């Protein structure tokens, strides 16, 4: 297993991290025995970074990890978990949640503590007013957390503004060879890395979609390579080729996945892809956008939208739902665009048809018409009152 330093922290983590959001299931519940075998298999293969969160598996992910790590593995691994922002309305909420997480994880400290889905600068401003900086500094001082960071699903300008506003230890972004310019993207990755901030990558396989069978047009491109590789190999290798990437999270839930991914993480060094191989990614990316419902490359020239629509985000999840037949995409779209995890609403139906975006789009896309398609397809008629009720429920639940 290869390891990289987590930015300025000096801590070495495995370049392959274990994403604990997709444990194997049995009869509609987590298959705990199989989960245990896979996690131990990963540890024995050299993985030392495990990423979980309060909300994963209805709160069971942290508990199961705590039970496994208590068997004598805690000193060999790094735990990353997250503060659920929808439950936070005060500094006291932060303290109570952290204490509960420490108990569930059966540990006296959390190595990497992240703010979950700080998706815009307004969200970060709210947390500052509630005292999150003071909370983090105190928790680091008394040893309950070692390093502090945030996960992110917004646009690159908000990302850079958040990076500049605090002395972060690390961050976590969505990034893969299709989403090179989506959300924080390559620009955000390199910006954070240039400031000595470790960068952990989530969704390297787009929820597994880049690991499965590819359309014929795309497979033809990969087949022209001199070296035959699996789709997982191509996807992970592209990320590890970049020195700014500290670790890549994989939501492994099969023994074969653990075996393949740990083997790959033994051999891929930064800068190992040839110029010919890198050109294949460009060709594959071009084919993806050509085949998708909206040929948006996520460049962000259309942003910011005066009405608050996150245009690249809307198109990405719309494409994902149909191109990959991903049923989860609609739920993720509604949750993030609806502001359920914090931040401002940014869904497609907020569009005011001003046309400012179309004047600057390099692809000359009919953005207004496409946003109507997204709204009709991704947003049920009751979306706004439903989202209001869900946000209200989260607030009441957090108070309880």
Order of neighbouring strands in the sheet with most strands: 3-6-7-8-9-10-11-12
Radius of gyration: 21 Å
**H-E order:** EEEEEHEHEHEHHEHEHEHHEHHHHHHH
List the domain count as a whole number. Answer: 2
Identify the CATH homologous superfamily of the largest domain.
Answer: NADP-dependent oxidoreductase domain
> Structural class per helix/strand content?
alpha/beta
The oligomeric state is: single chain
Average pLDDT level: 92
Give a quick account of the main beta sheet: strands, pairing sense, barrel closure: 8 strands, parallel, barrel
Shape: globular
Task: Please write the CATH class name of the largest domain.
Answer: Alpha Beta
Percentage of β-strand residues:
5-15%
Number of strands: 12
Looking at the structure, the CATH topology of the largest domain is TIM Barrel
First CA to last CA: what distance?
Answer: 44 Å
State the helical fraction. 40-55%
- Low-pLDDT segments, ≥5 res: none
Provide a count of the helices: 16
Report on this model:
- This protein has 400 residues and is an alpha/beta fold.
- It is 44% helix and 13% strand.
- It is built from 16 helices and 12 strands.
- It has helices at 32-44, 60-69, 91-104, 121-129, 132-141, 156-164, 185-194, 216-223, 231-240, 255-264, 275-291, 311-323, 328-337, 356-360, 367-378, 383-399, and strands at residues 3-5, 12-14, 16-19, 25-26, 29-30, 49-51, 78-83, 110-115, 145-152, 170-174, 198-202, 247-250.
- An 8-stranded parallel barrel has the order 3-6-7-8-9-10-11-12, surrounded by 4 helices. The chain has a two-stranded antiparallel ribbon with strand order 1-2.
- Helix 1 (32-44) runs parallel beside helix 10 (255-264).
- The radius of gyration is 21 Å and the shape is globular.
- The model has no long low-confidence stretch (mean pLDDT 92).
């Amino acid at each position: 297993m290869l390891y990289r330093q987590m930015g300025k922290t000096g801590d070495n983590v495995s370049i392959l991290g274990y994403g604990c959001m997709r444990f194997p299931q049995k009869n509609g519940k987590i298959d705990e025995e199989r989960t245990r075998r896979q996690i131990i298999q990963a540890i024995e293969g050299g993985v030392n970074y495990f990423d979980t969160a309060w909300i994963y598996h209805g709160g069971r992910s942290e508990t199961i990890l705590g039970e496994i790590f208590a068997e004598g593995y805690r000193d060999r691994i790094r735990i990353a978990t997250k503060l659920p922002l929808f439950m936070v309305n005060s500094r006291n909420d932060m303290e109570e949640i952290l204490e509960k997480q420490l108990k569930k994880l059966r540990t006296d400290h959390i190595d990497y503590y992240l703010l979950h889905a700080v998706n815009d600068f307004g969200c970060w401003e709210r947390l500052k007013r509630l005292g999150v900086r003071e909370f983090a500094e105190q928790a680091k001082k008394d040893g309950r957390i070692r390093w502090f960071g945030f996960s992110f699903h917004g646009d690159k300008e908000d990302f850079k503004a958040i990076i500049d506003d605090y002395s972060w230890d690390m961050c976590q972004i969505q990034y893969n060879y299709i989403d090179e310019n989506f959300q924080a993207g390559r620009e955000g990755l390199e910006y954070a890395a240039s400031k000595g901030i470790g960068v952990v990558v989530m969704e390297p396989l787009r929820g597994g979609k880049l690991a499965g069978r590819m359309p014929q047009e795309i497979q033809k491109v990969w087949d022209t390579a001199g070296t035959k590789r699996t789709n997982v190999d191509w996807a992970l290798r592209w990320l590890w080729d970049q020195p700014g990437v500290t670790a890549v999270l994989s939501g492994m839930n099969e023994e074969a996945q653990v075996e393949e991914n740990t083997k790959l993480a033994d051999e891929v060094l930064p800068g190992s892809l040839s110029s010919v191989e890198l050109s294949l990614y460009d060709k594959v990316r071009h084919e993806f956008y050509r085949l998708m419902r909206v040929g948006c490359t996520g460049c962000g020239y259309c942003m910011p939208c005066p009405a608050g629509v996150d245009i690249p985000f809307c198109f990405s999840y719309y494409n994902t739902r149909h191109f990959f037949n991903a049923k989860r995409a609609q739920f993720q779209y509604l949750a993030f665009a609806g502001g359920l995890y914090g931040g401002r609403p940014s869904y497609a139906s907020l569009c005011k048809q001003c046309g400012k975006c179309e004047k600057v789009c390099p692809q000359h896309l009919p953005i207004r018409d496409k946003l109507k398609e997204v709204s009709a397809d991704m947003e049920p008629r009751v979306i706004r009152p439903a989202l209001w009720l869900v946000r209200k429920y989260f607030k009441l639940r957090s108070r309880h």
